[in-house]
C-alpha cells in the first residue's frame, strides 16, 4: 500500500548559486558522504529530501539531515531515514522507500514513494 508520494524539481544553477552564497547551508542539508558529490547530484538529493517531506505530508520539525540518499547496489539510490523523519514514517506505517533521481538540462528531479 502506498502511504505517500512526493516529487520535487530543483534548478541546478540556482541551487549552486545558493550553496556558493551560503556555504554553511551545505552542512545543514547534507551528510558528510553526500557533501562530497557534484552539484547536480546534490541538487537531486535535495529534491529527494523535499520529496520525502511531501510523501510524509510535510509535518513540522523534519530535518534534511534525517533523510540521507545513499548509492546502493548498481548505483540505485536508496534512502536512510533517522530522527523525526524516521519517527513520522514509523507512525504512518512506512516500511519501504522507493526513490528515483535524475538531472539533465539544468534541472534535477526526484520522486519518492513511501510504502506501507
UniProtKB/TrEMBL annotation:
Catalytic activity: apo-[ACP] + CoA = holo-[ACP] + adenosine 3',5'-bisphosphate + H(+)
Compartments reported by the entry: Cytoplasm
Residue stretches making up the 4'-phosphopantetheinyl transferase domain: 4-108
InterPro entries on file: 4-PPantetheinyl_Trfase_dom, 4-PPantetheinyl_Trfase_dom_sf, ACPS, Ppantetheine-prot_Trfase_dom
Keyword NADP: no
Keyword Protein transport: no
Main location: cytoplasm
Cofactors (names): Mg(2+)
GO MF terms held by the record: holo-[acyl-carrier-protein] synthase activity
UniProt keyword annotations, A-Z: Cytoplasm, Fatty acid biosynthesis, Fatty acid metabolism, Lipid biosynthesis, Lipid metabolism, Magnesium, Metal-binding, Transferase
Broad enzyme group: transferase
NCBIfam families per record: acpS, pantethn_trn, PRK00070.3-2
Membership in a protein family: Belongs to the P-Pant transferase superfamily. AcpS family.
Function text: Transfers the 4'-phosphopantetheine moiety from coenzyme A to a Ser of acyl-carrier-protein.
Protein's recorded name: Holo-[acyl-carrier-protein] synthase
Native source species: Streptosporangium amethystogenes subsp. fukuiense
Gene (name only): acpS
Amino acid at each position: 500500500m502506498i502511504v505517500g508520494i512526493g516529487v520535487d524539481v530543483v534548478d541546478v544553477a540556482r541551487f549552486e548559486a545558493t550553496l556558493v552564497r551560503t556555504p554553511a547551508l551545505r552542512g545543514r542539508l547534507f551528510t558528510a558522504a553526500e557533501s562530497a558529490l557534484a552539484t547536480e547530484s546534490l541538487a537531486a538529493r535535495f529534491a529527494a529530501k523535499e520529496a520525502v517531506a511531501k510523501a510524509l505530508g510535510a509535518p513540522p520539525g523534519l530535518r534534511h539531515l534525517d533523510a540521507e540518499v545513499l548509492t546502493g547496489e548498481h548505483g540505485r539510490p536508496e534512502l536512510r531515514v533517522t530522527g523525526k523523519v524516521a519517527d513520522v514514517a514509523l507512525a504512518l506505517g512506512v516500511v519501504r522507500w522507493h526513490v528515483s533521481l535524475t538531472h539533465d538540462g539544468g534541472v534535477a528531479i526526484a520522486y519518492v514513494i513511501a510504502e506501507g
